[in-house]
Fold:
Amino acid sequence: MNRRSLLRLLGTAGTTGAAGLLLQPEALAAEPAPAAPTAPALGPLKITKVRPILTAPHPGIRFVVVKVETSEPGLYGLGCATFNQRPLTVKTAVEEYLDPFCRGRDADNIEDIWQTAYTSSYWRNGPVLNNALSGLDQALWDIKGKRAGLPVYQLLGGKCRFAVPCYAHASGRDLAQLEDSVQRHRERGFRYIRIQLGGYGSPHLSGTADFERQQFGLPVESHMDARPYLKTTEEMFAHVRAKCGDEIELLHDIHERVEPIDAINLCKRLEPYRPFFIEDPFAPEAIGWFRALRQQTAVPIAMGELFNSPHEWVGLISERLIDFIRVHISQIGGLTVARKLAALAEWFQVRSAWHGPGDVSPVGHAANAHLDLAIHNFGIQEMVQFNPATYDVFPGCPTLKDGYLWIHEAPGWGVDLDEDLASKFPLPADRPGYWLPVRRRDGTAVRP
Ligand code: MG
Structure:
């Protein structure tokens, strides 16, 4: 033990300590202070290029991934910018605006780049620019992780759980088919199962509509009447609870397609079946109805799949009007904003349920999963099984096993993109990816 350590142990320099030693301050002054430990220096890292990569290995899905290249040869990052309904607009936003904005900037300063890119268009919070921003932002987090030699969840504080519980999608055209689908997912290890009967626009729910006979709209557009949907949804919950027991958690997505007062009524009638959550009872334009819903029922509510702006979620969370925040992380601008949203939600006991359908790229699913691992107020994750070609194009894509999502443990997101292979799956030229209308009997388009 040196003199300095001994003095610290005894308490005060120049006094008689427990060991009866008298130590003089001047003796201490002669000893140089030990050097403070220093982190290994990281050299400057500049962004050299930001470019979009578009690929469609999974049928019907148009992935947009942003690749950020840096001044360090071979060091790059990937981020999800997938906007399945408008992929080419995101491509333009990245190529024509984000790339020139970012070149020469310091790749380490993620927050500064996010803030300045966010306001670089002056008008903001729209889905196209948010997706482009997400591609850039997630790629910078990927680079940060690779530079640190750590998976991104480690940069966020480490794991709160060993893997990410996921829910499966069960559906059927009738109750028997649905029950079968639920049982198959249970056999695969899922404990959380979303149940949907008939799908949207199914003849099971609606029959042939008057607008179809009148040739109003296009033949590819579908029909959904609210009344059969409301009736069969209650029957569906009763049936699945009776046949499949109380062990599983049941989820359901209203998908905004009924009138707000009907959605409130439905939630009340579903209470006895203990849903894990009911999703999207109202369209984003109708969020003023949440207070009335809360006053009427204690059914847990998930909301936010279509949100783009903090103005949509801050009030719902801080007034404790929802239970799960359901945003699509690339639609809100990437990990930088999503981790702040998660932190806000934690103080209001709102849990996460990030949107995770097929039109999130494997890079985006990795971002969902890394955040899921690191936050305490995780709720549940949605994930899909991609086709084999998608796993080939994106080596390291998180995988589903026994009802959990497992990330590939590697620095950054742990997901790569085989560009040569990706180029073999161009976006379908004949189908731009429109969200097709669902109509009422008279042809009125329903807002999703
Ligand atoms: Mg949904």
Summary: The pocket of magnesium ion is lined by residues 253, 255, 279-280, 305 (CB under 6 Å). The longest strand covers residues 47-55. Residues 57 and 390 are 5 Å apart (CA to CA). The first helix runs from residue 3 to 10.
